[in-house]
Amino acid sequence: MLVEFRSSYAAVVYAHSTEEVSAVVRLCAETRTPLISFGTGTSLEGHIQAVHGGVCLDLSEMNGILEVNAADMDCRVQAGVTRKSLNSHLRETGLHFPVDPGADASLGGMVACGASGTSTVRYGTMRENTLGLTAVLASGAVVRTGGRARKSSAGYDLTRLLVGSEGTLAIITEAQLKLYPLPAAVSAATCLFPTLEAAAAAVASLLQSGVPLARCELLDASAIRAFNSYATEVPDVPVGPTLFLEFEGVSDEMVGAIASVAKECCDDSGGGSFQWATSESERRRLWAARHSTYYAALALRPGSRGIVTDAVVPISRLAEVMRQTADDVASSGVWGPIFGHAGDGNFHCILLVRHDDPPEYVAKLNAINERLMARTLAAGGSCTGEHGIGVGKKKYLVPQYGENTVEMMRELKRSLDPLNILNPGKVVDI
Amino acid sequence: MLVEFRSSYAAVVYAHSTEEVSAVVRLCAETRTPLISFGTGTSLEGHIQAVHGGVCLDLSEMNGILEVNAADMDCRVQAGVTRKSLNSHLRETGLHFPVDPGADASLGGMVACGASGTSTVRYGTMRENTLGLTAVLASGAVVRTGGRARKSSAGYDLTRLLVGSEGTLAIITEAQLKLYPLPAAVSAATCLFPTLEAAAAAVASLLQSGVPLARCELLDASAIRAFNSYATEVPDVPVGPTLFLEFEGVSDEMVGAIASVAKECCDDSGGGSFQWATSESERRRLWAARHSTYYAALALRPGSRGIVTDAVVPISRLAEVMRQTADDVASSGVWGPIFGHAGDGNFHCILLVRHDDPPEYVAKLNAINERLMARTLAAGGSCTGEHGIGVGKKKYLVPQYGENTVEMMRELKRSLDPLNILNPGKVVDI
To answer: Any idea where the FAD-binding PCMH-type domain is (chains A, B) (predicted)?
Structure first.
């Protein structure tokens, strides 16, 4: 996070097929040229920066949807297809691809980054939703991992080794993905809590009761305040830690049965005014503060951009780490509304920075993030829930895992990319 | 499958801690001695055979349950803890560990084998349920992978590289596992179909309707006949392809809502006499034929043991591959009832063999399996859904994945175990 990159690509190559990617990789291997694959450029930890120079391999024109197997609920796409274009294409099938990191990222990039988002509590991350890959190794060899079967124990799990490898072990050119039926019934709910602790207790209660959550998001009071000052055309919503829930099911009866148990869980944890809705317009209204969190945050300080932290902890530690972070933001005198994928224990703080901020101001934000990372690791969490390592988080890997484990990662990198041409300087250094 | 092993261990070492395992690995590295880890010995593809001699590392006495974090629904166990002993230990917490391969296998073995079973359609395999591992590398170095966070994108996914690696990349000594609440309400159902195709169509319809299935098993007519001749104390059940379903939920209302949509899916696919029950005794009665499948099969031919094939295909090909296999069994004049984890596209044929069968008989069984594997790969499936590669299925890896992909597996093996001391001769040869 917050690393400044001063670098540029020597060239940008647009590839259109796995064979072209293989040819480019072979050329880069011959000339020992770093190769950085590029999808939509929406990653957040410097993944696409040319820290050692080199060639940018732009896969955005590899945007073919190669197959949709509706009967088996899977599809095969080229790496440059974005998640929204896939979902548009699927519209008539009654199926969808649910992983939603916010940005309209390319699916190859989402695989490479191990992306997830608001629907992960129900559908999992890219790890659970990638059935197989076509990828080009550093030698130029093309591999096909996984397959179309829903499960398999045939050999090493190369698919999941490549998911989240951030372009450092292979170039992903195609992905076989799981699809899901659009739910027959959906309902949404919101619930205000007196404290972050009470809201987190409600999340724990929902999970421990086995309530099937489609989404489970938490906004802190400062994020709600940001919404109220941003969305001046609608009435203010009550300020305080607020849970945003969504339920899905095969019928209104099923969704109603779920919502009724969910309400009990929230009530028992001190939640007030549990509101729920089934019509799309009412659901949209209930969730408005969550849907506009990012832009509401930016509006707190005109002209700023958001630097989004990323931390994930066991649920039992979520309230404590969120509160300490909110306190840290407040006492540092900066802006930083907090929202979280609470059902996963994952949360973000949107730190606002302007290009003309003095170095001392930027240093404050960096210090907040450093303390957040220390707190997260001490709580048994991970330095990144969904943004990946890139350049910005390399330094936390050894504190998180220990030297032996990171050395095992380096050994894999050395083994699969001995010339260090695939996105060098990211994830681990060799 | 069906490989005969004539080998024995030079010694059996009982380890009690990760440190002891590390010391044994270092000694084996010094002396280039093969090391075969052993849990309960319930794997099916020759994983624990000493094909190159060597030492058996018995982990069954590493049976400590190190932590149960009820609030976060996770636990940490030593590798030798069996799934049943973990679930007994959890009884008072309202939580359970759901992956159920049938045998009371050790959890370390289940991780190593990438195990799954009847509950996988709901809860996933060991891949989805292993949060982190402690493991000893071939150098003796101890690594800790993953962690307690519910998701993470911090570096290469070493956990899932080791899940399913069958003791060939590292010795797993501890596992951090996801736990789940025991469901508040459960119901079971059975439904008879005129053909395998109709039953498979019902499964596809259930999945495409988003019906949350807790279990979804399919028995062919020969498996039902085997049950009727085995369970003479209960009335015969109607003979024909039969689906065995289970639903879970937070309340009877939720489970009822699910069962009602499930019944529609079965009716629309030509299913007859959809029966369902919520009380435990009635559920047990409905599912009796499924629960006793294996022993009913053995009873068809007294004195025999079952050789269990393992294949997984996309759901749209399940009926066809099951039918061709059933026809092959019938026309070969052998016994081979078929049952499947239909919701995953995974099925098994129980081929019966006696120690005094002539070589021609055994050759017939091998030929059935060879044809099944060819059919499975042609249908875009995997040569093993849950039993793993071991020795018996090595030869199918190149046909399934292609040479480049298997070479990538070999490269990982060479990199992490350059002396080839960890369970050599399994998964891939180097």
So the answer is: 5-182
